[in-house]
């Protein structure tokens, strides 16, 4: 089955705000093929389905910071953002066939991003373990070099170090 929306398009529309991966109401509306106003009206009619951890409104400062990335936001007074759970809940509010297919694509993208992030955490852990091993080996190798240096000393150098003098 051909993808309705390429994953890369959706990935570019996911932002990290307040420690949550979120999507803007305008981006979601565009993906669903409806107006932002229509999307927000549907949400308002079903507001009990959207607690603060599913959807929240951006502050003016957040809007101004986001407008550096998404220039069309600069003039927006109110912007709602939806977490992964909020996007999933939108599928129960927007009931068209297209919205169901779009939601499936978005959910798959969130899952892909989660897999990528967990892979990075695992890689970072393995790298830290490797660094510890290398540090241990560095000190062991240093000890080996010191032992070789001692073995390479001439008898005169050895006498000076130990304090023995030959008569």
Throw out a few tags for this protein.
167 residues; four-stranded antiparallel sheet; 7 helices; 4 strands
Q: Evaluate the radius of gyration.
A: 30 Å
Distance between the termini: 94 Å
| Spatial shape | elongated
Q: Which segments are poorly predicted (pLDDT under 50) over 5 or more consecutive residues?
A: none
Nearest-integer average pLDDT? 81
Query: Spatial order of the strands in the main sheet?
Result: 1-2-4-3
Give the strand content. Answer: 5-15%
Classify the helix fraction into a percent range.
55-70%
Number of helices: 7
From the helix content, strand content and strand pairing, which structural class follows?
A: alpha+beta
Summarize the main sheet: 4 strands, antiparallel
Helix and strand element order: HEEHHEHEHHH
Beta strand count: 4
Description:
The chain has 167 residues and is α+β, with helices and mostly antiparallel strands. Helix content is 62%, strand content 10%. It contains seven helices and four strands. It has helices at 7-11, 25-32, 36-45, 60-66, 84-93, 97-152, 155-162, and strands at 14-17, 20-24, 55-57, 80-83. Strands 1-2-4-3 form a four-stranded antiparallel sheet. Helix 2 (25-32) crosses helix 3 (36-45) and helix 5 (84-93) runs antiparallel to helix 6 (97-152). The longest helix is centred in the C-terminal third of the chain and has 56 residues, at 97-152. The protein is elongated, with a radius of gyration of 30 Å. The N and C termini lie far apart (94 Å).
